Amino acid sequence: ILGTSPDAIDLAEDRDRFKRLLDKLGLRQPQNGIAASPQEAKAIAEQIGYPIVIRPSYVLGGRAMEIVHDAAQLDRYIARLAADLDRPSELVVSEKRPLLIDRYLSDAIEVDVDCLADGKDAFIAGVMEHIEEAGIHSGDSACSLPPHSLPADKIAEIERETKALALALNVGGLMNVQYAIKNGEIYVLEVNPRASRTVPFVAKVIGKPVAKIAARIMAGERLADFVLAPARIRHIAVKEAVFPFARFPGVDTILGPEMRSTGEVMGIDRDHAIAFAKSQLGAGSLLPRGGTVFISVREADKPRILDSVRLLAELGFRVIATSGTQRYLAEQGLKAEKVNKVLEGRPHIVDLIKNGDVQLVFNTTEGVTAINDSRSLRRAALLHKVPYYTTLSGAVAAAQGIKAYLAGDLEVRALQTYF
Q1: Which pTM was predicted?
Q2: N or C terminus: fewer CB in 10 A for the chain?
Q3: What is the pLDDT of residues 354-365, one digit of tens each?
């Protein structure tokens, strides 16, 4: 095996060994545990505190991973695993088939880092800030390079921790690390001592043949021989995921920890809002120039959506909202018309979407009941090609992107002109 050794790969994958490594390096990770029975899963969840992120240890790549908000949802999750595998629940969760449980860091910023290393030196190829909050699979999340909102000291600390991990794992070639930042604290979510799907994106943004260099390091060359300097780029790029939802009748479009995208595109410019707008166009989502925006957001997001709603109103958009959101917007001096939820009777929001009366949807939800109640809304938006955003950060970026789109700044340039 070329590059990073099998033992180092195991060290990054094995929960206990990896925890000891992080403790040795003085790095944080979310509270977590390993459950060998359904009863132990409940006990760990109660100890850590809901919500939790849970997945079977024997399933990789985010499949079967779920954010669980209470004990009843945990019971349903284990029952569904048992049904999928056609086994009793005590055999689905056992010493040989444990469940991995982590504290879910709500409203955290997720960061992806790609790094080159040869065991002696390390080079940070790119630090990417996710637009969606932590908890959305990194393959499904839009992200920007360089980060668009992180302070310089946090970026410097992330780079320091990444280099420490690369040298401790004796990485030979590429390594990817995923972090979450909550209340100013940095947490290590996952370390992959290999190339990640973000490498082609990073290489195009910084103008360096990252994969080629990694392959040559794996074959025995030294990182120092490539004389790499930190990229000083004056542009910003946004990676956006492409989803196959329209081809699967009845599927819900809400994003979570299980990866669902089938491709990705990139928007690049010297301005973050314009780069985001380009990424949306590339992914097949045409941001509207006007019309009606529908707003329905969870309680915690209401204060934070205000600036975006105000911006869209100033740009000439008509604002409609469900009762709770409409009442809050009115209290803040923003004009919004009330529209019924599907459960409240007709005419409701799905009727308006089907009639072509809605051009943009901002809908964030929380909890199993709310997610299920708003499923028909997301499905209608998808089928009628109405751009929809199910995370607060995505909605904020969309509003800024529409402003840039209306300003007519979407100039097309060859990638080479950025270097």
Answers
A1: 0.83
A2: N
A3: 999 999 999 887
